[in-house]
Amino acid sequence: MTTSISRRTFGRGAAATLLLNRRLARACSPTPDRLTAEQVVQRIRSKMASDGIPWQPPFPWKPVDGFKYGDPATPVTGVVFTFQASFEVLKKAVQAGKNFIISHERMFWDHLDDLGTLQHDQPFEVPGSLETDPVVVAKRRYCEENSLVVWRFHDHQHMLKPDPILTGLIAKLGWQRYSVPVQGQMIGTAFVLPETPLKEVARHVARSLDSTTVRVIGDPNLPVKRVGLGAHKLVEILKPLQTCDVVLMSEPQDCDAFPYLRDAISLGMPHPKGLIAANHEKFEEWGEQDAPAWLKTVLPELPVEFIAAGDPYWALPQKQI
Amino acid sequence: MLPTMTTWELVNRIHSALGERHPDAMDEGILTGGDEDTVTGILVANEPSVETLRLAVSAGKNCILCREHPYYLFGEYLAVGLAEALRDDPVLQAKRQFIQDHRLLIIRLAALWDTARPKWFSAALARKLGWEPQAAEPGDQWTTACCNIPATTLEELAHFVSARLAARNLRMVGEPTRSIKRVAVIHGFSYPTLVLSHALQDPAVDCILTGATPEVDHCTTYIRDAITAGRNISLVQVGYEKSDYPGAVELTGWLKSILPGMPIEAQPPPGELCWFA
User: Fold this and answer.
1) pTM for the full model?
2) pLDDT for residue B96 is more than 90
3) Which CATH architecture has domain A7-160+285-306?
4) What is the pLDDT of residues B47-86, one digit of tens each?
5) Cα–Cα 20 to 30 A to B10, which of A20, A170, A298, B126?
6) CB neighbours (10 Å) of residue B109?
7) Minimal CA–CA distance to B97: which of B79, B70, B69?
């Protein structure tokens, strides 16, 4: 009988060897009253259970949530909520004296997700793979040197009622009174606005989300009354594109959704008519700002704060359309 | 009488001229029309948009040679489930009807170019920017073309590229004052992250210039982390279509050399579809 074991699980057992480093040993000194990362997660799961949300409901996909780096048995000095555990966010967490980062998105790239410690993983590394990339190594080493623990809270966070990511976005847009429920779509909300030209709707979105790189497709003077929501892929926004004047979309790809919009407009189709493309961070980060208050209700004894991952892009000054 | 050939003969001529018969890629090859249809003229365009198809019809060219898919099936990363979802889509149905009504022959050959001449499109983009791409090492299959350029800053480079490509919608990652002397030019959609990781194996590369990249789970965040890790690097996204157009122009010249007498032209430079709010 063979038992498959992830590198993460194996690596946890080997993590104790890291305590040879004095700095780590100091940071990880167990104290009777210091919660571990695992215990913080248990508080979160208990709170969700008390709100009627089971921890492992039957997702139609493999859930992405869980510990992504560090030893869950690490005593926590403070908690950071963030949209994405970028290297910059990790450094800010350390500066703030907090070593447990709860991240909505992945901390590495190309779906690199199952990692143990650097020392443990070395025999498994494939030359030329992303694991041997100096940026990956530097980020991992920083986590280990600072006893950081990173836990991903994505699929289950979206299950909270209401979805904090969505409510954060709606609040930032100031569109609470315009929101209406929709069925059978990736994001079950649309907005019915007073009729407004597309350029004004888009500018409102850019100002509200504090982004200078919101891209727009469509006639700037297109009258907009109904705004749909969507994310990432054309296949996921087809329905709102067919029912709304414009769709506010998170991180589209030029080579995917854009050609479809171009053709629809060329053909003079009644739908779709427009797209407002926001960065992924600026679409979802607002919900993380409220997360510390949510967690403090069950974790009063630890400091909890939000650290922004921020807009990755800047653009050249533009003459406004 | 002008020479004519069938779509199958055209594809075979291209393969032969490239030196070998490359395997067909998924969702590529002769996508509309039949093997035995006669090609009367070729419009080279990266995106076989409705606009492009109308241009081909008005120019009397019944064949469109392109990099992208007429029905939006870019590739596995993005197109999972899309064909099924578009089955009754009114936009796709209208486009398909137009193609059928005008008996257009659409041939998509993207993987072929990138396999046979990996640096072709990136080098064309570099040349359009007035740069000389470094000669490739034998066996180098990466599409990246590296160029040493006069020392500049990211902001200055962005202004230069914007003017040179008539591209307004550039997006940059990195401090505007960051110094740049060596650019890794990667046409099109730079994905996955390993593509950028490979470019950074050259320690002198201090800028990646590409069409577009995925943001969060892949390339853009990698570059942000590389900067935080201390690497002198920045990222310039010029737009997917803008990055591929110079390659289409050079490809048109090459096609004319292997198909003497066949009416061939490149589409005019495509306008940018989007604008900043």
Assistant:
1) 0.92
2) yes
3) 3-Layer(aba) Sandwich (3.40)
4) 999 999 999 999 999 999 999 999 999 887 788 899 999 9
5) B126
6) 22
7) B70
